Write the structure tokens for this entry.
Amino acid sequence: MGFLFASQSDVTLIVIKEPTENDENKTKTALFHVDRAKLIESSAYFRTMFSSRWERAGKYNPTLRGDTIKSMEVILGSIHGFDPEPESVSVTDVWYTMRACNKYLLDPKKLVGWFTRWIQWIDQEDTTIWEDLDFNRQLLFPCYFFDHANAFQQISKRLVYDNPGYITELAPRDSPLFEPMHMPAIAMRKSTSLVSLRPKNSNSQKEQLRAARGRLRTILQRSLFEDVNVTIDYAYCACAAHTIFSYMRELHRIGVRPLDGDIHKNGVRDILNRLKGFNEEKTLNGQSSVQRYTGCSHSWKFVVEHSRKQVEGYFDGLCLDCMHNNPDENSEYWSLDTIRYVYGKDCRISHGQPTWYFSFMGHRDRNPSRMQS
Ligand SMILES: [Zn+2]
Ligand SMILES: [Zn+2]
């Protein structure tokens, strides 16, 4: 296999890919005809390589091992201004590309354009692939690494709303394992089968995505029961008991069982979808809700719809820009003197206060509680 990246190529890199355990193929070799000056300009690794004594001794075609050919095609292509065909790049290749970036000391910023076009291609090709939660989990970290604010927002939001169990990042099968990368804790539980993305400071690890989802559940629960509490405390009419009972039973009928611990095993999105099936008729028992006494007259349909919309619109996903501010607990991030009307004003994505709050990656122990809901 050969790749011609420079018409005036003065160096040929020989990339050798040894077969892995899972790979029945034999050793693969590819030749990359490249421009030495561009390599030196882009990477300290190549700068060092080409200043070695062998290099100075004459013609030198380095052999590189331990990389996949596709990942080298991506990084060498980006150095020379060529993208590989997007359909030829898998998620696993993306992970190998991140590793190659680290190994060859290449600034990931140089690959932002390539990654953006790759995501764009996925969006055009098959939007249904985003419904696959594993695909989202596999791309959360690459979106962080290649600084794709938009996809990172969408993916983190999707994981918070749609993922039923623990929210974890996932490395594709056959992808490389990573040593700690320069990533703050984006806050997911580690699992032994998954790649560990250790934060610079393990104390700073906050499971922000899980925290955001917990917040959604709290809001949902509170919102669904606000009026129930009012009835219990203030209504003394004979129909009050029936009002609450029939509301609870209708919630159970649609599969939302707020008093059941199992509710936490459901994804937030699932619960929201079930709430759409709430049928007020079934709670009325022949009475109109407006004829009842104060404290007992609720439109449960309204309560349910209000709760659903409140939760649905609450969290916009994590914001890379807010994350990168990554301030410490004393920073202006938490400053109470700063009156904020618009959150995410200077961010690439538009978002509300909860996104700002959950995108904070530093210590939170001493922060003033500023959550509103
Ligand atoms: Zn009543
Ligand atoms: Zn932001």
Confidence is low (pLDDT under 50) at residues 186-206, 366-373. The chain has 15 helices and four strands. Residues 235, 237, 239-240, 243, 292-293, 296 surround zinc ion (ligand 1) (CB under 6 Å). Strands lie at 2-4, 11-17, 28-34, 63-65.
